[in-house]
Amino acid sequence: MYTKTLWKIACQEDVYPGMWQRWFKNQCVAVGWASKWGYKLHGPTKGGKGWITARNAMNEMAVGDMVIVALRGNRIGRLGEITGKAIEDYQWNPLVPKGHKLPDGEMGRRILVRWELITGPSDVDLVVKLPSSNRFTIGELRPTVSQISSQTIKQICAVMNDPSNWVSLPGRFGYERALSDYIASYPGRLEDGLLPHPNARMREFVFKDRTRLDVLLIDRNEQPVIVECKQNGPTLKDIKQLRRYILCLQREKDQKARGILVHGGAQKLSEEIILEAKKKPFVKIVSYRLNVDFG
Predict the structure, then answer these.
(1) pLDDT tens digit string along 74-118?
(2) Would you say the C-alpha torsion 134, 135, 140, 146 has a positive or negative sign?
(3) Domains and CATH numbers, the chain
(4) How far apart are CA 169 and CA 111, in angstroms?
C-alpha cells in the first residue's frame, strides 16, 4: 500500500512579498537555482549543501505526496497534493518576473499541487501558527525543501482545522501604530465601558526610564488601563514589559492600574504565556483580526 510522504517547502515571503499568494493562485510551490546559473538537477552541479539537499528532495517527490507551505515564525500556509513536477533544467518558469538584477527571474522550478481547500482557513490571507507541541524540528525547518517526519499528515490537518491557530499574514504597514490609534479612538470596542483617559498629560505620560506606553484608557471604575499593542503573538518579554508599565504607573503616580495586551497572533496561547499573564499584576490578553474593506 502506498503511503503518502509529507514534504515542506519554505516560502520566502520576506524576500519576495506576495509569493505565497502567487503559489496559491498558480497551484504550485517553487524553488530557484536555475540551471543556467550552474545548478543542474542531475549529475555534476554547482552549489553547496542547500541546492544538493533541495534537488535530492525534489527528485524523490512523487505524484500523490503531500506538501506543506512553511512561512517564517512557525507558520504554515496550505497543504497540497502533488499532481506533477516541472523542475527539469529546461522547464524554468519563474514566478518572480525578470527585472533589475533578475535577468532570468526567480522561483522557476515548480512542483504542481492541488490545494486541500477543506483543510485550514478558507481565506488565503489567513495562515496557521503551529502550536509549540506541533512544530517542525530544526532539521526539518532549516532546508528550503525537506521531508517532514516529526508530524503526521493527520496531526497537521488537525492543527490547521483549529481556528484558534489561524493568524493573519502580516502586511508591511504600521500595524501596531494603526491599532493603537484605533483603540484610542474606539476603546469601547476593546472592552465595554472603556474610555480615553481624560487627562491629556497622563495619555502622553513618559516613564522615568524614557519609555512610553501605547494607549492609556480608563474603565468604568475610574481605574487606568494600559493597553500594549503587538503585531505578532505575545511573548514573555511583551507581558513583562506591560507589567513593568503597570508597576511604574502605580509607583510614579500612586494609582492602581491594570493592563491589556492586544496581539495579532493565534488565539490559542502556550501554557508558558498563560502562566506568565496570571502573575500579579494580572495581564489580560486579547487577540485582534485586521479587516479592511474598499468600496
Answers:
(1) 999 999 999 999 999 999 999 998 888 889 999 999 999 999 888
(2) positive
(3) 6-168 (3.10.590), 175-287 (3.40.1350.10)
(4) 23
